[in-house]
Amino acid sequence: MPQQTPQERREHPRQSVNFHIEVRIHANQAHTTVELRDISEGGMSFIVDSLDDYHEDQRLQISVPEYDETGSLQHQHLQAEIAWLQEQDLLNPQAWVGLRLLAEA
Q1: Residue 68 has what pLDDT?
Q2: 76 to each of 72, 84, 85, 90, 104, how far by Cα in Å?
Q3: Angle at 85 between CA 105 and CA 43, to 5 degrees
């Protein structure tokens, strides 16, 4: 039986996006603003300058901007877990972090 590619194994299709989210590694730490790369129903990934502060299975708090029914900018606060890390290499000019969404904060 042929082996499935990672894209074929995805439960939820990913949509490319280009906006910023806030990431907080520790509850008492200031947030970091990062560029969101893509998003799906079950997760998302974002671009980082360095993977030094991140590791698989690490839990993060993230804030995603959204507009409410009146057009006011709000932030949806979510809990996420790092599912994978992608090092910077010839095919990936920037490192990125893949998240599995857990729940709203």
Answers
A1: 87
A2: 13, 23, 24, 34, 8
A3: 40
